[in-house]
Design a protein that fits this description.
Blueprint: E1 2-3, E2 51-56, H1 64-73, E3 87-98, E4 101-112, E5 116-123, H2 140-152, E6 156-160, H3 181-201, H4 203-206, E7 208-219, H5 221-236, E8 241-248, H6 254-263, H7 267-272, H8 275-283, H9 301-311, H10 331-339, H11 347-354, E9 369-375, H12 383-395, E10 399-405, H13 410-416, H14 418-429
Parallel strand pairs: 5-6, 5-7, 7-8, 8-9, 9-10
Antiparallel strand pairs: 1-2, 2-3, 3-4, 4-6
Helix pairs in contact: 3-5, 6-10
Length: 448
């Protein structure tokens, strides 16, 4: 394990001024405190993304041949992706910010075990839980799978655990703010900074140079993280040349998901059960959970949901005996959601709208191409909410190429389209002109 000095000398007296890249619009132009009772100001970017410590994880290094074998055993044909490089793995602690304070968070960084310059990919993981025990950097090979795959394809990979999920070292002091755009984006963008710094510090060992050409890449919660990171990047990480964002089965339409999950009991209801509880924590909503959850038998959601999220990475036992949405959500929430009257829910409704991408409180000033993958039979991030969002995002100025995997469930849609996702990313990195129509396509069968 290595500890970093606080200050590095970056230039000699009398040297020519270094080109620090594009000038960012003032961070203070971004709003804070959009919902809830907390008020805060942005922390300056001087030390954001700065490594606090890092550690080699040789037990998680993997040879390309072994990775091909693992994929074959898992039923994913290894020849569907150009797996080329052995992979070197690290875990990192780095600085980011949360509601006006500097905090430390954790993640994984991986490199191809080769000499050369490689693009940067931010691998933004899907839901693994809501507390430290659920952080991918503490879950061994399972948590490192995205890093292993993408670095084997030829990328420097930065993978944040997200706030509220510290995988090693000092624990976090909060629940993971689930499907909350701001903290997820900041931790993700600062993870990229940490990966670049680690590549420079470990250059003698890895012989890798991290190119600033960057792709944001994620499934499910991570697909949303990719799009929120793209939204914040012009202000928060202007030194990155973000050439594309791959968002597969992303929860971009939180309002639509709440409406569906509150009306029809199913996977969306279960998946959204954590959202409002973590909204209360992150936004500082000064109202009892009984405003949005029921406390009726058998689940007693309002009384038990926070404890369940803290205790388990998969709190499925919350739903023992639950068969309808009125056993999960309050009458007030179900009525407001059905009418899409988010104002009736006060601060809860504000948070739901603020984390619905087309209603984001921050303007979009970038023009990044996006690959938007829909799973045609997705019952978790309900497929109709993704379809509804495509014309809205197009109207809001997004440049989307949309791929709908016909008949695929949530996992299969993200997994089986990986070859198309990676080729799309390679095209963006190679500056292939992006000319896709921003519209819903004819669904197609996605087969790796």
């Amino acid at each position: 394990m290595r500890m970093l000095p606080l200050v590095f000398v970056l230039a000699c007296a009398g040297a020519e001024p270094e080109d620090t890249g594009p000038t960012a619009p003032p961070l203070t132009d971004l709003p804070t405190s959009t919902c809830g009772t907390l008020e805060y100001e942005w922390v300056p970017l001087d030390h954001m993304g700065e490594l606090v410590e890092w550690e080699r994880l040789p037990d998680l290094d993997m040879e390309a041949g072994l990775l091909r074998g693992v994929l074959d055993l898992a039923g994913f044909p290894a020849d569907a992706l150009p797996i080329t490089y052995d992979v070197v793995m690290y875990r990192v602690r780095y600085r980011t910010q949360d509601r006006g304070r500097t905090v430390e968070t954790t993640g994984l960084v991986s490199f191809p075990d080769a000499e050369g310059t490689f693009p940067t990919v931010a691998w933004l993981h899907g839901t693994t839980g809501f507390s430290d025990q659920c952080a991918p950097s503490g879950l061994g090979v399972e948590g490192a799978a995205g890093n292993l795959l993408l670095s084997s394809l030829g990328a420097v990979v930065a993978s944040p655990d997200y706030l509220g999920m510290n995988g090693w070292g000092e624990p976090s002091d909060m629940l993971h703010p689930y499907v909350v755009g701001e903290p997820t984006a900041l931790a993700s963008l600062d993870a990229i900074r940490a990966a670049w710094e680690l590549a420079e510090l470990e250059a003698g060992n890895t012989e890798v140079v991290a190119d600033r050409k960057t792709v944001l890449f994620g499934p499910s919660e991570g697909g949303g993280a990719a799009l929120w990171s793209e939204r914040y990047a012009p202000w928060y990480l202007p030194e990155a040349d973000i050439v594309g964002a791959v968002a597969s089965v992303p929860p971009t339409n939180v309002a639509g998901l709440v409406k569906h999950g509150a009306a029809e009991f199913g996977d969306t209801t279960r998946g959204l059960s954590a959202v409002l509880a973590t909204y209360q924590d992150w936004y500082g909503i000064d109202a009892p959970l009984t405003e949005v959850y029921t406390d009726a038998d058998p689940a007693f959601f309002a009384s038990s949901v926070v404890d369940a999220l803290e205790a388990s990475c998969n709190p499925g036992s919350l739903f023992d005996g639950v068969t309808s949405t009125d056993q999960v959500y309050s009458d007030a929430l179900r009525t407001a959601a059905a009418a899409e009257d988010w104002d009736a829910l006060g601060e809860w409704g504000c948070a739901i709208r603020a984390n619905t991408l087309v209603h984001a409180p921050i303007p979009r000033i970038s023009d990044t191409p996006v690959l938007y993958v829909i799973a045609g039979a997705d019952e978790l991030v309900y497929h109709e909410t993704n379809r509804e969002d495509v014309p809205r995002l197009c109207e809001a100025g997004y440049r989307l190429e949309v791929l709908e995997c016909e008949g695929a469930d949530h996992v299969a849609g993200a997994r089986d389209s990986l070859p198309e996702q990676w080729q799309w990313a390679l095209d963006r990195l190679a500056d292939v002109p992006f000319e896709a129509p921003c519209e819903l396509p004819t669904p197609e069968v996605c087969t790796p």
